[in-house]
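Protocol step 4 of 5: obtain the predicted structure for the target chain.
Materials: sequence only (see below). No template structures provided, no constraints applied. The aim of this step is simply to have a reference model before the mutagenesis design in step 5. Sequence pasted as it appears in the construct record:
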Amino acid sequence: MVLGTYTGSLGSYAGFIIATIWVGYRVNEDIGNGALHGALVGFFAGIISAILMIILGIILNIGPSMDIMSFGLIGVIIGLIVDGIIGTAGGVIGSYLNM
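Step 4 output (structure tokens):
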């Protein structure tokens, strides 16, 4: 989210992939563990960013609803799935680099 502020969406996902590659590299086991840990990082990062968007909506007086997110709850669920897939790919790449 921080990189996305300065570099846009592409920079945000580049930072996200770099972080999950690092997680996959640090697992020191096999590719399956790298994929699992990368997916967990992606999933939890998506949850944290959704919570931060809701809190930001409350602080900005938009209300506790998900109006600040353009796609609502379905968009959050799809975003979590996409973040998990990107995290899995990054974890696998990091595990390959460690071999």
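Step 4 remarks: The chain is about 80% helix and 0% strand. The mean pLDDT is 80.
Proceed to step 5.
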